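Record format v2
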Amino acid sequence: MAKQIPISNNIKTLRFLNDEMTQQELAEKLGLTRQTIAAIEQRKYSPSLEIAFRIANIFKKPLDEIFVYEGRDD
Amino acid sequence: MAKQIPISNNIKTLRFLNDEMTQQELAEKLGLTRQTIAAIEQRKYSPSLEIAFRIANIFKKPLDEIFVYEGRDD
DNA sequence: ACCCTATGTTAATAATATTTAACATTATGT
DNA sequence: ACATAATGTTAAATATTATTAACATAGGGT
């Protein structure tokens, strides 16, 4: 398993709560590809801040209810 | 003036409120360069979500009190 | 068993974020 | 006036994120 980024998210859960939205549908709303959504859900990399905000807008939740930073806080 | 990203921030203000922290000092805490901090403050580009969270941690504020998305919410 | 949809996964490429170095401006202190 | 610290700004290089296409698996419906 490849290394994960230190930010978790519950996009997958939110998709199901929102009328079982598919990765494809979410990707289309964002103007991204479904592979990018899959990669974000699997924490392969940290999305840009802008993409994170747009995801939060789609689900009508504050950003930090969807993404949570799990890194050390030095 | 070059185009700006659709996310505003009040990092500059927060630096001053936090003991007049300089761009250089903030950059060092984050492991970034001062030019990167300058560029973020001037909205030249959107920082990564991870950097945004680490900035929020440094100032002990929720992320969305520092960064606000100003794009259309489709 | 067969089709169809949703998702996982990988590799190569494109786009964007970040670094580095260099030089500029502005304000402050002596 | 001179020196110094903080910041602005640019260009070129590197690192990371996002796209695309291709192929894989798992589950549901018929």
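Chain B is about 50% helix and 10% strand.
Chain B has a mean pLDDT of 90.
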